[in-house]
Amino acid sequence: MSSLPSLKKKTVEGKLYKRGAKTEALIRTCLELTFDELCNQAEISARSHANYIPSEVLVYFLRQTKTHNNDDQFYRLYQLLEKRIKRACLYYSGVRLSDNDDPDVHILDFQEFVLDDFAERVMLDRQRYEEKLDTFECKFDKAVALRKTDAMRKMYRRDKPKEQIEYDEDGDITADVERALAELHPDVSSIEDDMTYRFQLQRAINSLPEDERRVINMIFAGIPSESTNLDTPTISKLLGCGPQTVRNRRNRAVKKLKKMLGTEVKDVN
Amino acid sequence: MSTDMNQDNILDDFAMESPLGPETLLSYVKKYPELALELTDLYHELLMVDLSAAADAIQQNTKSVVGTSQQNEASVASALSGANLRKLAQKLGLPRDYIAGFRDRKVRFGSIPGPLLINLARSASVNVHQMIKYFQDTTGPIPQMAHKAAGKPQGSATVEYDEFVKGLDLNESELEALNRLSVSDGQD
Q1: Of A132, A159, A186, which one is at a domain's C-terminal end?
Q2: Which residues, including other chains, have CB under 8 Å from residue B10's CB and lie 6 or more apart?
Q3: Domain identity same for A139 and A38
Q4: Interface of B with A in 11-30 (CB under 8 A)
Q5: Among A31, A51, A26, A121, which residue's Cα sits nearest to residue A81?
Q6: Parts of chain A with a pLDDT under 50
Q7: Tell me, what DSSP letter sits at residue A10?
Q8: Looking at the 3D structure of chain A, how many domains does it have?
Q9: Which of A203, B13, B81, B103 has its CA 20 to 30 A from that of A94?
Q10: Cβ <8 Å between B36 and A205
Q11: pLDDT at position B2
Q12: In a domain, A12, yes or no
């Protein structure tokens, strides 16, 4: 069996990026299909479908069209990937840059940003090898997610309102808040329950304002709020705000998460 | 390697990590504290991707694909026509026929050098994606009369890019301008 051409992008530590074994196997399977069969099968959008073709495979075939004298194959594959990128941009429904934002406008902005970034890489790849496109061949959805956060950073920088001064609330972290954080990680009995729970929790975190979301994600990653050791990265240091501000954000976030998760459980029941 | 490029590469590596858990975020934040915000935001987004994929819950329709396609067509056509065409040709130091050739999709898309198409799109203030879609959409308007054309336009097959340029009989300064347009600026 002939081997597929290796990717050329290297990690910061110098290791070559590699396609997943499943992706490589599927590319080989798809090489047996006619182009029409490949495209028809690629129209299937449900990942659970047995014939679903992952986007990584389509990126591989798109890159191969650079040597073709006929543009139709490029257009067809590009269109399929365009649809998938647009769909992937809809994942992030909880974008909140400010309270007055229309989320639909941001989704369209994200789609445009990510599509343009992808288009640019594809065009460069047709001229010379574009290593940045390798990430799309390794993990397509994550490469899209990365471009989305990039878009968000740029848009946020563009739209960022003046920082409001945050006044510290009186008092320290209450025992209630500590308990509530622990409750956000309950023991669950099955993988399905765990998946459902994690999905609900992450969706709830997604709906928090950015400053609170960052604090919660950092806490869950085990980054301490503060430390007496000057070399330890703390949330307070990383976010460039005072420890009390971190605590305030955490308290507010936990309160909201508890409310949101509690409501969801009630709805389910 | 520039700092921006290095940052992009670190974020690329983080996005490709598997499995991705809180400990992955912690180890990257420890290693690259200056990227803590970017990594935390990306981590959250990547978790959403993982969970959405696992749940296969993506059943939303893509938003107004048809409408968007028409918008692409109109934006590019407008950017490459009339006063915009004149301004663009002047800005780039190229004859109007060159721009009109793109507007009328006379050139086979696959033969256009990638960096040139990117630079042309940027100069015309349209997206690269819109430019690709414009070329893809062959149901667009009938080619307009070319600048200084003597007769009515005829529907004709596309030509290879090199052939198209040759046919324009560019002078030295225009060829230089074209070379500038064809160079990738190496930006990401």
Answers
A1: A159
A2: A12, B28, B32, B35
A3: yes
A4: 11-13, 15-16, 18, 22-23, 25-26, 29-30
A5: A121
A6: 93-99, 159-174, 264-269
A7: B
A8: 2
A9: B13
A10: no
A11: 58
A12: no
Q: Write out residues 108-127 of A within 8 Å (CB-CB) of B.
A: 108, 111-112, 115-116, 118-120, 122-127
Instruction: Report how far residue A20's alpha carbon sits from residue A25's, in angstroms, rounded to the nearest whole number.
Output: 9
Structural domain boundaries, residue A183: 175-261
Tokens linked to A136: 């799309």
Is residue A181 located within the same domain as residue A155? no
Give chain B as a DSSP string.
--HHHHHHHHHHHHHH-SS--HHHHHHHHHH-GGGHHHHHHHHHHHHHHHHHHHHT---PPPS-HHHHHHHHHHHHHHHTSHHHHHHHHHHHT--HHHHHHHHTT-B-GGGS-HHHHHHHHHHTT--HHHHHHHHH-TTSPPPPPPTT-SS-------B-HHHHHHHHT--HHHHHHHHHHHS-----
Extract the tokens encoding A253. Answer: 């976030």
- What mean pLDDT value characterizes chain B? 82
**Quick one: A39 and A128 in the same domain?**
yes
ipTM: 0.78
pLDDT score, position A13 = 93
CA atoms within 13 A on the CB side of A114: 29
Q: Extract the tokens encoding B62.
A: 């893509």
Structure confidence at residue B48 (pLDDT): 81
Domain boundary assignment for chain B: 3-55, 65-182
Same domain, A51 and A155: yes
- Cα–Cα distance measured from residue A119 to residue A122, given in angstroms and rounded to the nearest whole number: 5
Three-class DSSP category at A225: coil
Q: Which residues of A touch B117 (CB under 8 A)?
A: 123
Whether A196 and A104 map to the same domain: the answer is no
Give Cα separations from A256 to A177, A219, A222 (angstroms).
Answer: 11, 16, 21
- Contact predicate B117/A123, CB 8 Å: yes
- A194 sits in the region (left: phi over 0; alpha: psi -120 to 50; else beta) called alpha
Are A141 and A182 in the same domain?
no
Question: Is residue A268 in a domain?
Answer: no
Which among A87, A213, A233 has CB closest to B62?
A87
Q: Is residue A148 part of a domain?
A: yes
